[in-house]
Amino acid sequence: MLQELHIRDIALIKEAWIEPSAGFTVFTGETGAGKTVLLNALKLIVGERGDLSLIRHGAESARIEAQFSDDTLATRQITTSGRNRCTLDDELVTVGRLSEVLGPTIDLHGQHDHQALLRPATHSRLLNQWGGEEVATCFQSYQEAFSCYQETVAQLSELTAHISKSVEEVELGRIALADIERIDPKVGEDDALSGALPALQHAGELNEAIQAALQFLREDQCALDLVSGARDALLSVVEYDKRLEEIIQTLSQVAIDIDEAGMGLRNIKETIEHDDVRLEDTLARLGVLDGLKKRFGPSLDAVIERKEHLQKLLAVTENGEEELAQAQKRVDEARGNLEEVAHALHKARAKTATELSKELRAGVVSLDMEDAMFDIICELLPFDQYTQSGPDRIEILYQPASNATLRPLSKIASGGEISRVMLALKSVLGDADEAQTLVFDEIDAGIGGATATLVGKRLAHLAKTHQVIVVTHLAQVAVYADTHYVVNKQSDSDGVETSVSLVEGIEREKEIARMLSGDTGEVALEHARELFENASI
Prior knowledge:
This protein is α/β, with parallel strands linked by helices. It has 17 helices and 15 strands.
């Protein structure tokens, strides 16, 4: 949900701060004041294409910041050079990422640029959500069955490819496997041998160095004797100066460390051997393993992985017919299960489509669109056209008048008609609709009087489940809003500038009066107050 919108240097707006309510927010103003600029700003923040003509004359860039209720902060800046800079929570992102994250949460109505419900691809998901638990359960079963079927088909294809390999390829694989199995490499064997090799190659030097170290540490007049002698000398006089205790403790620990070091060297010395045979065997084994790595590597792990792959390949080749029959059986079983759950899902969706069509019909009638009709196509597709989203083609069609034909929603030409159709759709969908923020422009085009009041009531009702933002020139709509902004255009020596101001109390009454009669006299104000008093849902 949109909490705050900051606009800078867009069209005639130098700077504007807007805080729409969680319910119904309305923007009004005289024709040409720049109300649609607000919609352009929202289009930019949800990832629509940025038009350089939106940058305010004399400015180098236009910038929009939007704060959302989930603590998401989004910004977008477009420059006169055509560059975009977008961020999400202070992290640079692409325009596409901005659209991916924010696009589903905001629907803009009044033009075709950004309306999820105009796209048939979203209609099956809409039926799933509106259909409740029955459709949701069927859809989950379908997705599981669809994934299972795809997996078994992939396994069969892989198996068929293996079996179809040429005799020459199979024979080469057999020879390679025999070579690897003859050598029988173990995981990590080359590293272990390489680690042991230096000790085998330099056994004599190691023995000489260890023996010399032992003489220094443990033989007569060695380091251990000297340290022990120093400690014993101090022990004889420690009672006269307690400061010597810490030094005595240090010397005692040194003596222990020297003794342990000596024992450690003896243990190592016992393991070092002049074993020319073992050295030759180690070098030979490393040479053989290196040869394997050159042929099948680059690493020994890769060689072992190649061996396992060849074992499976040859096993499949040798038992090809049986393996293929079993794989085909799994595919047939998965297909049968998928067809069964697909028909169950289609049946549940078709039932939901009928019910939703009736609700939508009632929705447009309540907006004084008596002759309008909805129909929802729910056509079961051939098996090979099933997709992850379902086994059927779902599309909402609209008929504006009794003598007109049903057409896709995207074919509606009038912006005002689109807005009112979408208002009916959104009102019926309720919580099944994914978008949290709904923005309507031109919703009052070509209507007035009682119909305008019906639209205002419906918007207020919709605002109980969604954040609703509306640009309107009808007072009958504006009086139902929770929050009211006025867009004004002023001229001065510096040029023309548009401002956006929050109005409350008497200032809001004056704006409603202006919308009703073009002035703010007492008669007009009385009429405005009467409109407020009668505004109820």
